[in-house]
Design goal:
By secondary structure, the protein is of the alpha/beta class. The chain contains 18 helices and 10 strands. It is elongated.
């Protein structure tokens, strides 16, 4: 039967070869190396004929092409009498993409694969740093991190990023990590762990790609955050609060009892946005996030759903509704994005679903009107230009002035307000924000009028409109 023997060469020197690996290497006549750029290679048994796939790396467009070519050749060589011995750095099952592909192809072809284990790069790095791997250490590949926009790591746990083979790769890894960790966050570059050239360098994250020693035996260690800040930590805190040993108040809460808190935290977050106070916004977002995690924990306890399902649902929805990002359907502009968004929503929910479905009936009326206008416009129900909106406002004002009954005046005033909201949409202004800012200006100016009146020992209620207007204009000039 055809056989593939995969040998782990250890992290860097022959002293780390296992006895089994040495016996396999001594008993064969030739070995195919994924790469010859490894310290152990120079110390292999002298009788071996060595072949390597290094030339593939020099000419290929990406690693995927290299790996496919290596796998195809190893599978072909396995058909020979005696099979083939394929040697890789470290442990065959740690960071070796070709081995995973070989195992998959061998399973499909019913080929036998023997894995000869070797010490991985992880163990000498642990020794160099004095770490215990069971302290929550996360081990990831640098190429995987570099392809992300946010690191796939729990920042409350330490992480070891392996195979950081070049400065250009380090630059990409750095940018990804900076989406979670600060630029000045201290990390460790570990070069040639377990060899005489071993070097351990602490440095700020932003400096890692400046290190000229980065090579194929370089790893990056990222310590845990000093203050826990992961989503998992917050979930654990909330689950503890809801546990029998937790807080009586938190245990009593239900989806229904938390409705008011959710609404209050939402409005406080909006107020922080309106104020432009980023410190306040940070705090309010935390309060709002707590509400979401509480609802998810209650659902978990009721066996309705789990947080991972909440996250998976919105993640899948985002990717499905952005085929111009995660697909091959380009868009011309934001307008086309919004139109396609509505089209995809109808595909998801069913063709009999209204475009207006999903706008909460409990929204503030101004925001609800804005959402209705936006959604109707996405399917083409809109004026061709702003002049049509302005004409509509004038028409509705005339109808309001002509209304004779209270019922008609209420209806016509509603039409005026709805038309004004549509004008705001054309101006690309959020009417809720505009009115809240107007309210804030009015409050500030009116309170300044009251202050002026008190300083002059005047009762506002005794002033006529001309006097009040004078105080108002003074307050406006001061604001």
């Amino acid at each position: 039967m055809a056989e593939i023997t995969v040998v782990g060469l250890g992290p860097g020197e022959s002293k780390y070869l296992t006895l089994e690996a040495w016996q396999v290497l001594e008993s064969t006549s030739e070995v195919w190396l994924r790469t010859q750029r490894h310290p152990t290679v120079a110390q292999l048994p002298s009788h071996l004929v060595l072949h390597s796939f290094d030339t593939l790396y020099d000419g290929a467009g990406d690693f995927g092409e290299v790996y496919d070519a290596i796998v195809a050749e190893i599978v072909r060589l396995s058909q020979r009498p005696g099979g083939v011995v394929y040697a890789v750095p470290g442990h065959p099952m740690v960071g070796e993409a070709t081995v995973q592909r070989i195992l998959s192809e061998a399973k499909r072809r019913q080929l036998r694969v023997r894995i000869v284990e070797g010490l991985s790069f992880v163990e000498p790095v642990l020794t160099a740093l004095g770490l215990d791997a069971l302290s929550g250490l996360q081990v990831v590949d640098a190429i995987e991190v570099a392809t992300r926009f946010h690191p796939p790591l729990n920042p409350d746990m330490p992480a070891l990023i392996g195979q950081l083979h070049s400065r250009s790769l380090a630059a990409d890894v750095k940018l990804t990590l900076m989406n979670q960790y600060g630029d000045e966050f201290d990390v460790v570059l570990v070069h040639a762990a377990g060899t005489e050239e071993q070097r351990v360098d602490w440095m700020p994250l932003y400096e890692i790609d400046h290190d000229e020693r980065i090579a194929h035996l370089t790893s990056l260690f990222v310590p845990a955050l000093q203050i826990p800040g992961s989503f998992e930590t917050l979930q654990d805190t909330v689950a503890h609060l809801r546990a029998p040993s937790g807080c009586p108040w938190d245990r009593e809460q239900t989806h229904e009892s938390l409705r008011a808190s959710l609404l209050e935290e939402t409005y406080e977050t909006l107020a922080a946005i309106d104020s432009g106070d980023v410190v306040d916004l940070q705090e309010e977002l935390g309060d709002l996030l707590l509400q979401i995690v509480l609802h998810a924990q209650i659902a978990t306890e009721d066996d309705d759903f789990h947080m991972d399902e909440v996250i998976a649902g919105i993640d899948s929805k985002l990717k499905h509704r952005h085929p111009h990002v995660w697909g091959d359907r380009p868009v011309a502009d934001t307008g086309e994005v919004l139109q396609r968004w509505e089209q995809l929503k109808r595909e998801e929910k069913g063709s009999d679903r209204s475009v207006l479905d999903g706008v909460p009936m409990t929204l503030p009326a101004l925001q609800q009107a804005h959402s209705y206008g936006q959604r109707a416009a996405r399917v083409g129900f809109d004026w061709p230009d702003p002049s049509g909106v302005i004409a509509k406002i004038e028409e509705e004002i005339a109808e309001l002035q002509a209304a004779l009954t209270e019922e008609d005046r209420v209806a016509e005033l509603g039409d005026v307000l709805f038309a004004v909201v549509n004008w705001a949409r054309w101006l690309e202004i959020d009417p809720e924000v505009a009115l809240r800012e107007a309210n804030a200006r009015f409050r500030k100016r009116f309170q300044r009028m009251e202050t002026t009146a008190r300083e002059r020992s005047i009762d506002l209620a005794t002033l006529d409109i001309a006097q009040l207007e004078g105080l108002w204009q003074k307050a406006k000039r001061a604001s």
